[in-house]
Amino acid sequence: MRARLLAALLLVVAGLVAVPSSAQAANLLTNPGFESGSLTGWTCSGGSVVSSPVRTGSHALNGAVTSSDTAQCSQTVAVQPSTAYTLSAWVRGSYVYLGVTGGASTWTPSASSYTQLTVSFTTSASQTSAQIYLHGWYGQPAYQADDVNLDGPGGNPPTQGAPSVPGAPSVTSTTNSSIGLSWGASTGTVTGYRVYEGSTVVKTVTGTSTTIDGLGACTSHSYSVAAYNSNGESAKSAVASATTSGCTNTGLPKHALIGYLHASFANGSGYVRMADVPAAWNSINLSFGEPTTATSGDIRFNRCPAAECPNVESDAEFLAAIKAKQAAGKKVLISIGGANGQVQLTSTAARDAFVSSVSAIIDRWGLDGLDIDFEGHSLYLNAGDTDFRNPTTPVIVNLISALKTLKAKYGAGFVLTMAPETFFVQVGYQHYGGSSGGDNRTGSYLPVIHALRDALTVLHVQDYNSGPVMGLDNQYHTMGGADFHIAMTDMIKAGFPVANTGHTFPGLRQDQIAFGLPAAVSAGNGYTAPAAVHQALDCLVKGQNCGGYTLRGGASPSFRGLMTWSINWDKYYNWEFQNSHAPYLAALP
User: Which of 23, 61, 339, 540 is most deeply buried (CB count within 10 A of its CB)?
Assistant: First the structure.
């Protein structure tokens, strides 16, 4: 929280592996250079054939991307099981993707002239078909592609052929234990459809809709669909994601005011006694719990000494005030980290010490939960750690394990929040620490957020102390105005491709999303005037007054609220933040 402006910007696995059969040089694709003058062999959304610009021959593919369509073109081909293939294409444009449905992919953020993308993959032991695809990204200009090549031995397509790929599924309903889906029918002879979660078949049906039941409450799931007949199975469809209902009510209002309280230091703004925190604050984060050493995992919460905070209350008064706040429906959390509290859980011993010491703090003061405010060098990604869904860096893996243990210990009502800086989240759209030669901390919160997405109460990214950050419109946004908060928050709601990894970070539920602000000009860089904050809220909650920005994630009527650093600074500036924003949040639908 007391963060200075951050500077903006191989894992080698050795051992014996099974060697797949080698692929012979042969392009398996139909109409790979679009020289037929049509899209023969391809299934496209927003695709057409153009005569310029082309790389070779007379024609190329043009993908007309919109704000709601990535203009995907795909083709399904017969392949051989347990066989290595190489897919390549020459592409032109911004954020162009090439890949295999359900498998490997690659992309380029910008290609002003034709540039070759290449990705290799190996079919599974039972795989007989593969769907390859090209697409752009929401809201970008049109892209072009030419000379697409799938190199490898062809499979044995059945006489009658397997069905075509079904249409992308859509979510039709959610309950505490089920998710309803429907999808477009396949062409050809169809015996039925298999619904997959990852590589696991979770339902087999004959129609184009189903309900997946037996799910846990408030859990996130992603599904794809494949059609099959006696001759084989189609490639999988695009993925649809949803979260079951039944999320535990942690007691926060629909739109909450969240603030940090300097409980262990004064920081120039003066000490505020717990009993004197106004009722407008719905969640109070005690700042800070800090480690005895950076790698010990042993967290201590020391109250502000009287020499620094002459008006500090006694421990008994502090505890009584916490209980009074809780009786009034407020939440009181311990926040771990801050600018001076570097926490690196480099070992399982540090992880276990973290769980034990944080539990002791929570139990000592009867707190409602935990806020993670890791800054500086607390989190980073080792070289080669490129899949945020399956991280390997110890400081990431151990933190995830520790937080899951604490959530399990205290139950569903335990409040878990996080306050990363944009550098650790949204900057992952351009640079991801384990996959690039830049700063290995970029995007390093993403695996933690993703692993805890079903346990996370609120993510309030610090929209301050930040350099310019590229949004989903591929424009740089600068802190201090409504536009920055709109663009940064929309990334969390819509999700975004993680740089240089081929993976996309899925958006969070709208009730899990807030954004953070300095309470006043002295509290941090990026102060935003109340009118601009309200403009951002109107856009994010109602879809109104968005300026020139188009929401990729749509409006969020259940947007959780605002966080600020800090309650102390707000008092120092005569409660401008509280008085401006608490009534505005309360008036939102």
Answer: 540
Residues with Cβ < 8 Å from 458, sequence gap 6 or more? 252, 256, 258, 283, 415, 417, 418, 512, 513, 514, 560, 561, 563
Q: Which residue has the tokens 């309950």?
A: 175
Helix (H, G, I), strand (E, B) or coil at 469: strand
Active site residues: 375
Q: What is the pLDDT of residues 161-219, one digit of tens each?
A: 788 889 888 889 999 899 999 999 998 889 999 999 877 889 999 999 999 999 888 88
Q: 368, 330 in Cβ contact below 8 A? A: no
Alpha helix (H) residue ranges in 139-295: none
pTM of the model: 0.70
122: β partners:
84
* DSSP reduced 3-state for 338: strand
Is the separation of the CB atoms in 421 and 375 below 8 Å? yes
CA 338 to CA 340: how far, in whole Å?
Answer: 6
Structure tokens at 536: 């951002």
| Cα distance between the two ends of the chain | 30
Give one DSSP letter per residue of 522-556, joined into a string. TT-TT---HHHHHHHHIIIIIS---TT---SS---
Q: Are 520 and 464 in contact (CB under 8 A)?
A: no
Is 144 or 341 the better-scoring residue by pLDDT?
144
C-alpha to C-alpha distances, 398 to 258, 291, 352, 355, nearest whole angstrom: 27, 15, 9, 10
Contact 376, 319 (CB under 8 A): no
